[in-house]
Amino acid sequence: xxxxxxxxxxxxxxxxxxxxxxxxxxxxxxxxxxxxxxxxxxxxxxxxxxxxxxxxxxxxxxxxxxxxxxxxxxxxxxxxxxxxxxxxxxxxxxxxxxxxxxxxxxxxxxxxxxxxxxxxxxxxxxxxxxxxxxxxxxxxxxxxxxxxxxxxxxxxxxxxxxxxxxxxxxxxxxxxxxxxxxxxxxxxxxxxxxxxxxxxxxxxxxxxxxxxxxxxxxxxxxxxxxxxxxxxxxxxxxxxxxxxxxxxxxxxxxxxxxxxxxxxxxxxxxxxxxxxxxxxxxxxxxxxxxxxxxxxxxxxxxxxxxxxxxxxxxxxxxxxxxxxxxxxxxxxxxxxxxxxxxxxxxxxxxxxx
Length: 353
Description:
Layout: H1 6-40, H2 48-61, H3 69-75, H4 77-80, H5 82-94, E1 109-113, E2 117-120, H6 121-127, E3 132-136, E4 141-144, H7 146-152, H8 155-167, E5 170-174, E6 180-190, E7 193-204, E8 207-216, E9 224-230, E10 236-238, E11 243-248, E12 253-258, E13 270-277, E14 285-291, E15 296-302, E16 312-318, E17 321-334, E18 342-352
Parallel strand pairs: 3-5, 5-9, 10-12
Antiparallel strand pairs: 1-8, 2-7, 4-7, 6-7, 8-9, 11-18, 12-13, 13-14, 14-15, 16-17, 17-18
């Protein structure tokens, strides 16, 4: 370093830091461009179910919902179909909940497969920017990897494992094993847990599937993403004379699709309901908000019993009828540090057309 000024040395250090920070970003940007080019040229082809899972991953990753540029690059109407795009984006947008699709399970991406489609971990990894990607089923099992645990007893190795757990992201793609055939399995160790009977490659049976997702994150941990592939919707399909017995948490959105009001426009026959509760001392109180694209109603109530088991009924208007929501009972939890104050933790409802 002889002959170099302090300013030059500081400049070199800053240059190295910038290079270290920017190099991965440049490689990632270049990789994204190459992926887009490969897909355009047909070198990498994603099955409809793979594309749906990737779309929901990016929907969960961004708070911008369908407005996120990465989501739109891969999940535009011309790539997932106009009907799928309306279900996933247009309907939530018209109901003022775009950005809340992830974790609500009320706006799944509906995919119909006429012939066996493939799912490939290698293909998913090309597009899903997560450190770890696992395709799991009800057959997947996990246990402690003792070799990893013993390795963690070495001070530096233990610190490294903790650092990885605090910085590395994980995406789980969840299937029912009964929906898959020709499964190629793999094992994978993640933060000291050895998973077996994971899916590396499989065919998905013909049928209709509903793809939804959830994001779990903490203040000190990176997010974990869960993308679910179900053969049934998780929102309510109501027709005349039909009822659903459901359990609902406060501030959880429930979608009600009124089947006997169906038109070609989703917003004509889809409604949302949300329960909210107040802190209470003796008897619970709560509000029910019920709305569609053009109208919002809200009703409040204070219970006369501690568990609200008097079965109070609320009636809300739809375009050609009513929805009846009967509160069967509530469950309450004490506030942290509060000896006498409670809040509702769960509503038990009977919802009828």
